[in-house]
Description:
Elements: E1 7-8, H1 9-12, H2 18-23, E2 28-31, E3 35-36, E4 46-47, H3 57-68, E5 72-77, H4 88-101, E6 106-110, H5 118-126, E7 131-133, H6 143-146, H7 152-163, E8 171-177, H8 183-195, E9 200-205, H9 222-235, E10 239-242, H10 252-264
Parallel strand pairs: 2-5, 3-4, 5-6, 6-7, 7-8, 8-9, 9-10
Antiparallel strand pairs: 1-2
Helix pairs in contact: 3-4, 4-5, 8-9
Amino acid sequence: MKDLDLRTVCEEAACPNIGDCWHHGTATFMILGDVCTRACGYCNVIHGRPGLVDPQEPLRLAQAVARMNLSYVVVTSVDRDDLRDGGASIFAATIKSIRNLVPRCKVEVLIPDFRGHSIDLQTVLNARPDIVNHNMETVERLYPRARSAGQYRRALTLLDRVNGHTPRIPVKSGLMVGLGEQWNELVTLLNDLRSVGCEILTIGQYLRPSRAHMPVDRYYHPDEFVALKECATKLGFLHVESGPLVRSSYHAHEQSVAFERVSRS
């Protein structure tokens, strides 16, 4: 990672699973720099004015995938509202570079909302990733506080557009609990996700990165994560990961395999 000047969200977001994932040789690559143009109340990534886009980054990332002999990668990014296309062209170039160097490797993308611009989303989809993920993160009522630059309905619309794309690409999303949401609001969020065709879901406990971030409203009991998974499964999600330390990219390869197994049956 250091030799090729690459970044991972594992490090930048202080993910609690970094030891587990890196031990198994998997990582979630973060492109487009390490400075985000947004300042979400829960996120540990630095925010401010990003630097210039590196057009060689997609090739270097693909070289890392080849050197690490990976069969499944997740590519995400900071929000780049300063760019005309929100970074969509770099996402597409990264997918294509991986395909060229490691054809057998599957690519999952965890994308920003591109400010609702469908043409930028289409740029990413045209590169044909294997799974498209956009995290809803929290319930609609908490968006102004947790994701002040984001919009709940805009995020749902993005997922709906992915679902309507041909050829069909599995739609994935994730959410955190413990920010102050109510149970009925979580159920509404799950229903909203199913209504736009989301089939893979991750649910994890919010952990406060620092005193400058939103406080933890409460910690959910493991039984509550089980109940959320059961609720989501009954609503029709084909694969659900639900637990305190679950994050959107945690065991992403296993999620993909499990999804394919269930969808075929």
